């Protein structure tokens, strides 16, 4: 009998890269390949890389080096695969000339072609063993749904468009079919991701697609409405990431107020001051973001906003930075992350005048985080005494000694959690991937402490 070929797989990078990994793993499994947990036990290794910031580039190059020395047969895919080197058009090949092949991101077919060339497919694939929802790297009860690739913006600190190209929206019918398969496969929380979720469909002029024979526009509002309808019979959550504060996003807020999708928006504002936003060439930089947030909160008071910011962008004055601190306070951003500006090779912001010294960038980041944490902690304290729906992520022994979950206000991996106390009722059990109601007793840093009821 033919030995089953084994592929080692390393997935680095953001949630968008993770969905690429899932597509490749699904295809490998569909064709009868097995995965190996070790480099040594594999016949070939695939490394899905990230090329966004210099640390990620280093991590990716190091991992490729480790895979090469432990295994020798390595295929590289992902963002770093699309990056030019110092002396050639490909950085990976320049540093690791012995890799078998290099592709850019979202190149499942290309990766599979290279796999076939170096490790032929097994004779008799057990195609039926692949669940309709594909192979997922996230825990079974939540999944990322990628709705588009690439980006039409040209933010000056970002090199994603040069690596991933302009926006390409996936057909709305395909996206909805995938969402339905995920819910049918037991997913209780769907995380919608892209580079710019609010731009969905712009590239195809909001073309009308079809789902179950019904026309649906390739447009954020229509997509979100349909996702809400698909999630409802499963009691599942739909969470939106990477949404820009464009006026048309206002139309999505009523769906949140009505409970059709989670009242949670991940809006990467990056800054508040119009001059800094202009230097960053941010989408929606001309919008009045504070007024917009206030209007959203009037329409949907339970709305939680997560955002990321950059401190010490080239040319940022102390006054501009203080504007940012005031914005975080006034907008009451529930969850905020902040990077000290760091030049990314190839980004046009590197050419801007007025570089802020590294220690000032770091000091501003620390000042920002102190304010953001104050705001966030005050908002968390308002929840004490409330009863919330919590999705259980971890509950050893059916939660007899407690567990960990998340409320609508917490996206996995980036926000806080809800620490669940042992239930008082003996009959109460906590099960991973199921919802429980819990009464919030207190707060602890970014987390809530709650009693399952
Ligand atoms: S919106 Fe800006 S930061 Fe985001 S991917 Fe596009 S260019 Fe990069």
TrEMBL record:
Binds 2 [4Fe-4S] clusters. One cluster is coordinated with 3 cysteines and an exchangeable S-adenosyl-L-methionine. Its cofactor is [4Fe-4S] cluster. GO terms for cellular component: cytosol; ribosome. GO terms for molecular function: 4 iron, 4 sulfur cluster binding; aspartic acid methylthiotransferase activity; metal ion binding; protein methylthiotransferase activity. It is an enzyme of class 2 (transferase). Its main location: cytoplasm. One of its GO terms (biological process) is tRNA modification. It catalyses: L-aspartate(89)-[ribosomal protein uS12]-hydrogen + (sulfur carrier)-SH + AH2 + 2 S-adenosyl-L-methionine = 3-methylsulfanyl-L-aspartate(89)-[ribosomal protein uS12]-hydrogen + (sulfur carrier)-H + 5'-deoxyadenosine + L-methionine + A + S-adenosyl-L-homocysteine + 2 H(+). Residues 5-120 form the MTTase N-terminal domain. Gene3D superfamilies: Methylthiotransferase, N-terminal domain, Nucleic acid-binding proteins, tm_1862 like domain. Its EC number is 2.8.4.4. [4Fe-4S] cluster 1 binds at residues 14, 50, 79. SUPFAM superfamilies: Radical SAM enzymes. It comes from the Bacteria. It is found in: Cytoplasm. Keywords: 4Fe-4S, Cytoplasm, Iron, Iron-sulfur, Metal-binding, Ribonucleoprotein, Ribosomal protein, S-adenosyl-L-methionine, Transferase. [4Fe-4S] cluster 2 binds at residues 151, 155, 158. Belongs to the methylthiotransferase family. RimO subfamily. This is Ribosomal protein uS12 methylthiotransferase RimO. It comes from Ramlibacter albus.
